[in-house]
Amino acid sequence: MSTELLKFLGIEGLKNMILTSKYEAAIMDALNLCGQVTINDLAFQLGVSGETVRRHVDPLVKRGLALRVHGGIIAPISIQEAPFHRRLRKNLDAKRRLAKAASDLINDGDSLIIDCGSTTAYVAQALCDHSNLNVVTNSIEIARTLASRNGNRTYVTGGELRADDAAAFGKGAIYFIQQFHVDYAILSVGAINRDNEFLDFHLCEAEFSRAAIGQARKSCFVTDSSKFDSDALVKVCGLDDVDIVVTEAQPPASFREACQFSETRLFFPVEDLT
User: Fold this and answer.
1) Containing domain of residue 127, as a range?
2) Can you say how many angstroms the Cα of residue 219 is from the centroid of all Cα atoms in its chain?
């Protein structure tokens, strides 16, 4: 059980943490590791039926140790975003794959606004072989990755630096990027819900993304497939405001259909098609 969850539950919660079966313990282990998990994944991991999983999930939900969502469960604190360096390690292979796909869309000499997400950090790494880029970012880490490399010019916003990820936010950051008109805004996202709305965990992140979209010829969101059919606190935009979505696996059918309707270009590996 994670320290954060113990703090969240408190003394009364601890009284409810007696797990009555090995399945409940295994379910909680998976939930604490990932923050959210589907019934199908749990059934596969435990080697039991979905109905058996649901039977053992029910008491966890009743005791407040899990929250039920469509198709699975989430931890009570999973609406809070994980620390940046932990997010960097999460879904590592997926982020590297989609980062390579996103970098393939960028030509030498292009101008970019790149935000401070863990996924866009991998996009910056994938762009290291490009040259003569003009990069505007609110991330010290991304600026360090791309500055003074292959003739790139890198501009870092002002604003208040966040301790977690060394990213700048606030009116100063937004005013700074509004001085630029770029080819692409390369943006991360906290979640994409079932209404195909793009969401973030913090208002300052959503405000920065909206400002970046307004300064770019094309907006490109990079997201691993775990973000689909999930939720976060603040709406960034709808699908109509998004020109390109890059992910590492086939998104839900409803999202693919919505992309066709909104004329949003969708990139994911061909081998994942079924």
Assistant:
1) 84-272
2) 16
Which of 74, 96, 114 marks a domain boundary? 74
SS3 10: helix
- The one-letter code for the residue type at 57 is V
Q: What is the pLDDT of residue 156?
A: 97
| Domain assignment of residue 79, yes or no | no
pTM of the model: 0.69
Neighbours of 15 (CB within 10 A): 10
Instruction: Count the domains in the chain.
Output: 2
Statement to judge: residues 59 and 134 lie in one domain? no
What stretches in the chain show pLDDT beneath 50?
1-19, 79, 272-274
